[in-house]
Structures are given as structure tokens and as C-alpha cells.
Amino acid sequence: MCGIVGYVGERKAAPILLSGLSKLEYRGYDSAGIAVYEKDRLQVIKTKGRLKALSDMIDGGKNMSSTMGIGHTRWATHGEPNDINSHPHLSQSSEIAVVHNGIIENYISLKEFLVEKGVKFLSETDTEVIAQLIEYNYRGDIVEAVMETLKDLKGSYALGVISRHNPEMFIAARKDSPLIIGAGKNENFIASDIPAILEYTRDIYILEDKEVAVLTKDSIKIYNEYGQMVNKKIFHVDWDVDAAEKGGFEHFMMKEIFEEPKVVKDTFNSRINGDLLKQDSLSFTAEQLNKIEKIFIVACGTAYHAGIVGKYLIEDLSGIPVETDVASEFRYRNPIINEKCLTIIISQSGETIDTLFALREAKSRGSKILSIVNVVGSSIARESDSVIYTLAGPEIAVASTKAYNTQLAALYTIALDFANKKNRINSEELKEKINTLKEIPGQIEKVLEKREGIQKFAANHYNAKSVFFIGRGLDYALAMEGSLKLKEISYIHSEAYAGGELKHGTIALIEKGTLVLCSVTQDALIEKMVSNIREVKSRGAVVMAITQEKNKLVESVADTVINIPDISSMFAPLTAATVMQLFAYYMSVLKGCDVDKPRNLAKSVTVE
Ligand code: F6R
Fold first, then answer.
1. Could you tell me the pTM of the whole model?
2. How confident is the model over 508-522, as pLDDT tens digits?
3. 372: part of which helix (H) or strand (E)?
4. Which residues are near ligand 1 (CB < 6 Å)?
């Protein structure tokens, strides 16, 4: 999971490559490099560390005159993050340079083959094999050499290739890793993601699996795996450039949390018309729905946690049994799934490889696929039978926040739609619930206004060594997400437990001063949770509770209470989630952690 940028045109390439890579650092940031055609040869500059180190090495690239090049920001998979293993990788004669995102599964056998032919390798990476193999296959036509090489690669790749033989062009290819092409005037681009080139063009081609593109400054030719030319439609991006920038906030994460009222509203608006649910080509008919015996919700990480909320909602409202699965487990556990099942796939990026492969597994067993995806045109969106787009816009901070809230928003509308079609709620109840949904953006705004209380609590506890999150029902699903958010950005150990499960072992870890965050928003479970709070308090825990204003009983037992507005239990997760995210954010800032780019993590996990 790395970031790739390529440029060919009339301007200096190096500053454009650096600027593009700076928008892709969320994809990986343990090393960075560029290759440009300079003074009749390929010049590669690369280094371990953040992009800034590379930029400093070449003084922002302003003294490099080349108008063609490729760049890369890396998240290591093969070989430790060091200068040599950084991309771009050169072939032995230094005539071909390659940047790569993905994993070449058969690189060892390819390497052995090339070594036997006398090829000398410098790095431990799978990517160097690609550069060497292209050179081995080169007989005077670089496009043919790339095409020939791709036939031998097993695994996933997004590639940018340049050659000293053809300094006026570069080649791009993809399989199971994202890559887009930007069409400009007298200049063209490739990138792993749209924000990297948004400053220069809004006209995009989305490369499909096994397609190869040849770009010069005034032409883009795209071929399928058989070498036939493909005609593609331009996808015009209408996001604000600002949407991909920090917009005055100190961190992308905070900016994105503040966008929640808007993006949740946008997502609802795309699914709701007045006080009715929109019925369009995505909607299931009652007849189709009646044939579905079971629903699987499959995703990873935060998206998986959204899926657990979805399970509670869909089962409760529609009565259809729902099973949730972590995608990396689902694909290997021989799930009992067939044409009578519906699989809901959730993914912000739409490129998470475990989730994509789980989708393919479910599809191959006959299940219909409905996906909830943020990135338009992503692999998961393209391979699904129907897609509900979350309208969160680009999410840059590694920790997912606004995308999670929009995933929940989409799940509420799905659950209500299914309940309606299964005649489990009447039209009055449906209207009432839809009207409650419409109030949620305003309620998230109120939570944001209360951020100081959360910040104050964090200020007193950011040295905590371990934090427990507990809740029951929907609050348990929320506790899992709160716990993940805290650990990934503040590096504090934390665990989520169902309130009633704590006493079956984990309570042994509660001692004087242990921090316990309790989500207490489910009316029917408040008294039970109050008992759980008493259990941990009597063992010395410090308790922060999140609850509706009306729940005075909770105030009487917790040390600190963060109130969310009074909202019925079913809809509370959408506002309580924002409290959890703010808490994790402040803990991370106070500890001095790199909020937007936590260690060991990358935004889009396109490797298994
Ligand atoms: C955590 C986080 C990850 C992602 C997970 C799935 O904040 O962002 O846990 O949720 O890697 O990613 P997507 O949704 O892109 O499939």
C-alpha cells in the first residue's frame, strides 16, 4: 500500500511529483523517491523517511529540468524501509525505472530465473524483479516488454514504468491495486488516488484490472491485456480542491470530524426524499427481499465495527438474520453462503484487499453483493451488484471518522428500507424514524460544541496505560470502535467489552485509577450498565460515561459524564461515535503523537 504519481508534460516534473506524493503520504510514508529523465539518463533520488527528507535532498526539485518522471511513497511489505528498498527501482543497466504498489507473489521464482541469467539485484524487494524482467524482455519496444512482463507476474500491482529509450512517455498498469490517469492539456498524469492530481486536472480515467496505459504529453492510449486499444469514458471530479486539504484545522482528523454533520446529511439526502426512502435501481423489491434468508456483513477495522451496528439495526428492524465477519477471516472459513444470501460489503477506500477478496468469495458462492463504499469507481464498487456511496468525500487522516459515521448513516437507511418492505414497521413509524434521522446532523453539531469537556477529561488522563470501553447492545458495537480509535492514534492499550462480559475475567484487570469509558445510550439497558459502572468503580476505576442528557441516573455513578442530546436509543450511535473520536483525538494530541499518520499504519490496506 504505497502511493504512485507520474507526470509527462511541459512543466518541470520533479516539483509536480513531490506535490502529488505529499497528497498520498497517507498511503505510506516510510520512504519516498522519484525517477526523472535528466541529462540523457534516468536519475533516481530516493530515501528512507518522510517525503520531506526527499524534498530537502533535491531542494523541492526546482533545479531539475526533466518534464517526465514517476514518484513513490512507500509502506514496506518486502524488505525493511531503507534507502535501497525504496522505490523507484532501476534495472541493471539503469535504463528502466519502476514504481510499484502491491505484492508480486511469485517474485522469488522470477528472481531465481533472472539471477541464473546473470542479472544482479540490489534490493530485497519484489518490485526490483519487475524492472529487471522488463529489461530482460526488452527487444527495442518498451510497451511490448512491459506487456510481456505482466504476463509473468502473479499477485497485485499498480505500476509506473519509464525508460531511457523513450523519454517522451511512460507506461502504467494495474491489477488489484488502484491507479487512475489524469488527462491534462499538454500534460498527463497517473496517481494512486485522485487528490494527488486534483490541483492539475479534474478529468480522470480509472484504469481497470490488467489494463495498460501509455502516456505522452498529448496522448493517452489504454490497452487491455490482449494489447487491444480500449476506449474509456472520462470521469469528471467535482470535489473542491479544498476538500482534499486541511482547511485551517491542525489535523485532517479534526477537520474530518467537523465535516460529520455535513457528510452525514449528504448521505441521508442521497437516500431520503422528504419523509420517505428513495426507491431507485439500488433498492430491493419486497419480493427480492423475501427471498433473502440471511445477510452477511463483511468488512475490516472501523468499517467492520460499522457493520456490527448494522447487524443490530437490520435484525431488530427487519427481522432478517445477520452475521458479521471480519473480511480476512470470512474468506478462509468456508462460510455457508449461497444465492439466498445477501452480502453487504463495507469499505471506505473500496480497495481493501481482504474485503475485496471476501466480496469475490461471497459472489462466487451465489450471493448478491450490496456494498457501502466511499471512493467512487473503486474496485469494490465496481465488482458489486449494487453500491450505496457514502458521501464522506476524501478521508485523509489514517484513522477513519467521518467515513464511519456515513457508513452508519447508510446502514440506518438500509435497515429502515428492509423493515418497511418486510412490513415490520408501518408508514407512520417509518416517517417518524426518518424524521429522527434528519435531526442527527444538528445533534452531531451539538456534540462538537461540547468538545471542551472531552478535551478536559483527556487532559487529566492522557498518561493512562490502559483503557477499557464498555457498553451493551449498540453501545457495545460503539465501544469496539472507540477502543480501536484510541489505540491506533494514541498507542494506549485498550479493549472493548460487552458490559455484562467484563465480570467473566477481564474485571481482574481493573484496579485503582484504571480508565473505563462507558457508553450508556440504550434505554432498556441503562440500569444494567449502571450496575456495571458500580462494579468497576468499586474496584477503583475512573469512569467517563457517554449518555443522553435525560439519564440522570448515570450522572450519579460516573466520575465524568459527556452528554449527547436526547435521542432515542436506536439512533444514539451516530452522535456518541463523535464523542469517542474526539476523545481519541485529544488523547493523541496531548501525548504528542502523529495524529494523522500513526505509526505502522496506512490508510488503504491493499495487501493481505
Ligand atoms: C481505522 C481504519 C481501518 C479501516 C480498515 C478498512 O481507523 O481506518 O480500520 O477501517 O482498514 O478500510 P476500508 O474501509 O477502506 O476498507
1. 0.79
2. 999 999 999 999 999
3. strand 368-373
4. 300-303, 347-349, 352, 355, 399-400, 484, 488, 604-605
DSSP string, 57-104: HTGGGTT---SEEEEEEE--SSS-SSTTTSSPEE-TTS-EEEEEES-B
Query: Which phi-psi region, left, alpha or beta, contains residue 191 (left: φ > 0; alpha: ψ -120 to 50)?
Result: beta
69 burial via Cβ count (<10 Å: 0-12, 13-18, 19+): buried
pLDDT (tens digit, 9 = 90+) per residue, 173-205?
Answer: 999 888 999 999 999 999 998 889 999 999 999
Does residue 102 register a pLDDT over 90? no
**Peptide bond between residue 88 and the one before it cis (omega within 30 degrees of 0):** yes
Cell 445533534, residue?
443
Ligand 1 atom 8: the closest Cα is on which residue?
Answer: 400
> What are the beta bridge partners of residue 545?
518, 561
Q: For ligand 1, atom 5, name the residue with the nearest CA.
A: 301
Element (H, E) at 409: helix 402-421
Mean local confidence (pLDDT), 271-280:
87
Catalytic residues: 2, 603
Given the CA of residue 401, which atom of ligand 1 is nearest to it? 7
Nearest CA to ligand 1 atom 6: 300
